[in-house]
């Protein structure tokens, strides 16, 4: 009996040691991108020299410069590895393989055509090469953006647009690095553009006059909030129209395969921002014919709001995350522990500099769908929703213990994060944070895997000041 008890204690001790060893630490680096004045910096993380490590390409729009930071085994350099002054009239830059020279080239689209800089192990040549000569309708004073071809559909990743006044010609690079003309897209002029897409090509100096050539390289602009098949559904159309007329309410049509049958389902998410915030779901299971049922297959009414959204004034929000990686996305929500219905409760939240929430998870069950009652609950505290950083106060994109499941990052305040590791034995997450991280105040938080080791890293960027804090995870 004593021998059995001793073995059991040893096993528990071993499990505790393994769990403790799975908690990483972080190496912090702060990069100050050179800027003439605090305006805006766009950061893109790409493996420029092909060594498996992500490098930093920082675009300072007001100075028309790109700064490159090549990552080494010890992390990122604090000073730029190279700076590139962009040609006059640059509209966008990108990394393309347009030449037989080893490595991807820096491709730049200007008002005079497209040029590229060849690279040698992460360092770009000083003199550009001409790829296409053309008078594009970009203004010289327009501010350039970085375009990521990998975010496009597979058949358009090598597409290179040349923009004229009334049409755009799409070119493609083949495997022999030949430049071939493709589709010709006629422009459709619009007096006003309500939507904005960072992966677009921009034409025109003023936002009201510009033409947007979307990543699908089509001349049409969609003004409707809904897309097929939901635009043909009378129930959804009527709900959207009714919600639009009401203050403090919003809706979002989410497309997600929630029942694992390989067909995209449509969920109308209806957010009611009242004293007691709540969210309603109208779930339509997709059919292979592309049609939806006339009425929802399931309706849910839940307290709280979806964990993902561009709050506090959301235009899109979704609660769907497959956090246990079983092929069925969970509904992940947050609801206030106590309603802020009195001055004293509001003052208490301000003094404590945080809001207490209950994070809830609802699982999809075959034949039953989701339940109105949460399958998992845990207490969390986030920062107050007083700044744009609140939009990323909850993050489900990192995996810091390399178990293949997303961990939970909570922005407790502007300078502190709590990280809750995933744990199936506890439901979904450890209920106590085993990892706290001091972060750059006033910046937006994102997750990357900078060194391709399967363990997530974090960076926080202050766009206006050009300051980037990188937190490289270190396995214990």
Descriptive overview:
The chain has 476 residues and is mainly beta. The strands form ten sheets. It has a five-stranded mixed beta sheet, with no helix packed on it. It starts with a helix and ends with a strand. Residues 1-21 and 190-225 have low confidence and may be disordered. The chain is globular and about 65 Å long. The protein has three helices and 35 strands.
Proportion of residues in helical segments: under 10%
Poorly predicted residue ranges: 1-21, 190-225
The value of Rg in angstroms is 25 Å
- Overall structural class, as computed from helix and strand content, comes to mainly beta
Q: What share of the residues does DSSP label as strand, in percent?
A: 35-45%
What oligomeric state do these chains adopt?
A: single chain
The average pLDDT score comes to: 81
Biggest sheet strand order reads: 11-8-7-6-12
Distance between the termini: 36 Å
Largest sheet: number of strands, sense, barrel closure: 5 strands, mixed
Q: How many beta-strand segments?
A: 35
Count of separate DSSP helical elements: 3
Shape: globular
